[in-house]
């Protein structure tokens, strides 16, 4: 079985309250390294057999039409989990 990863992030101009909350919590944990946090979504899609080009195309289509809200989110990656980005 193959797996396809789809990553979705809020558009830069969209407020990200979850990311802001995480950013505020980091210093309380003694972590001062990061200046900003944005929280997105990750989907894992499973296919029978190895990941084909058609499966990647279908995943990209699903990402744009079902897995993300194109008004407020960008699909930032669609890739074969075994091959990496």
The proportion of strand residues reads 25-35%
The gyration radius over C-alpha positions equals: 16 Å
Estimate the helix proportion, in percent.
25-40%
Order of helices and strands: EHEHE
User: Would you tell me the structural class of the helices and strands?
Assistant: alpha+beta
Multimer state: single chain
Number of strands: 3
Q: Quick check: average pLDDT?
A: 96
| Unreliable stretches covering 5 or more consecutive residues | none
Number of distinct helices: 2
Largest sheet: 3 strands, antiparallel
First CA to last CA: what distance? 18 Å
The general outline is: elongated
Protein name: Phosphoribosylformylglycinamidine synthase subunit PurS
Subcellular location: Cytoplasm
Enzyme class: ligase
EC number: 6.3.5.3
Features:
single chain, 85 residues, alpha+beta, three-stranded antiparallel beta sheet, 3 strands, elongated, ligase, Phosphoribosylformylglycinamidine synthase subunit PurS, ATP binding, PurS-like_sf
Descriptive overview:
- The structure is a single chain.
- The protein has a domain at 2-13 and 39-80.
- Helices cover 28% and strands 28% of the residues.
- The protein has helices at residues 17-25, 53-67, and strands at 2-10, 41-47, 73-80.
- A three-stranded antiparallel β-sheet has the order 2-1-3, with helices on one face.
- It starts with a strand and ends in a 5-residue tail after the last strand.
- The relative contact order is 0.33.
């Amino acid at each position: 079985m193959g797996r396809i990863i789809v990553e979705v992030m809020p558009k830069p101009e969209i407020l990200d309250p979850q990311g802001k909350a995480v950013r505020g919590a980091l210093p309380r944990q003694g972590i001062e390294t990061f200046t900003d946090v944005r929280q997105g979504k990750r989907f894992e899609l499973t296919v029978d057999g190895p990941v084909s080009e058609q499966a990647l195309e279908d995943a990209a289509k699903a990402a744009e039409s079902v897995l993300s809200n194109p008004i407020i989110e960008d699909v930032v990656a669609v890739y074969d989990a075994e091959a990496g980005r």
